Every structure is written in C-alpha cells, then in structure tokens.
Amino acid sequence: MGTSNPTVEMVNDYLAVPLGQIFLRMLFMVVMPLVFASIALGVAGLGDIRRVGRVGGKAIGYFIITTALAATLGLIVVNFTKPWERVSPETRTALMERFQKDASNRVEARRCPRSDGHPD
Q1: Would the pTM count as exceeding 0.70?
Q2: Is 21 left (phi over 0), alpha (psi -120 to 50) or beta?
Q3: CB-hemisphere CA count at 13 Å for 85?
C-alpha cells in the first residue's frame, strides 16, 4: 500500500482533505474573534493614549526582533542542512514539470487580474 493505492487516494481526496478544511475553517472562526477581542480589550483597558503608544512601540519592536530572529534561524538551518541536495535530479525534473504550468498560471493571473486581460 502507498499513495498510489486507489483506496488511499479516495480516502484522502473525499474524506481527509474536506474534513481538514472544515476543521481549519472552524478553528479560524473561533481564533480570529478571540484575538481581535483580546487586543481590543487590552487597548481599551490601558486608558491613557500615551500608554498605548508606549506599549504599542514595545509590541512592534518585539514583533520586529522575533521576526528577524526567526528568519535568521530559518536561513541558518536551511543553509546548514541543504535539503535541496537530497532531492534526486529525476525527482526535481518531475516536480518542475508537474508544477510549472500551475506556477505559470498563477503568475499570469497576478499580472492580469481583470477579465479583459489588461493589468490594473
């Protein structure tokens, strides 16, 4: 048994993927309002606008620092492990052929978002 098994493909296509999408959408329906409410209540609880500025500045600074650290760590790990070297040339060629048309369609859709073919 493997991914080429028709039973596995059917279970994946008709059961796992739809249930996974439903789960993720329900999770977002719960998480997004909770995050918004907690941020709004936090800002409202501060009261003084000067305190909002100070806390907001700290939050933005924290966000920038953690984002830079995450990007740096990701680049270090990828350059250290070099995952692209583990893919055989045959697999690389097959993947390029398989996804090249989809990538081209997405690039073209970005260039011409209007239905008449003219870019915005």
Answers
A1: no
A2: alpha
A3: 5
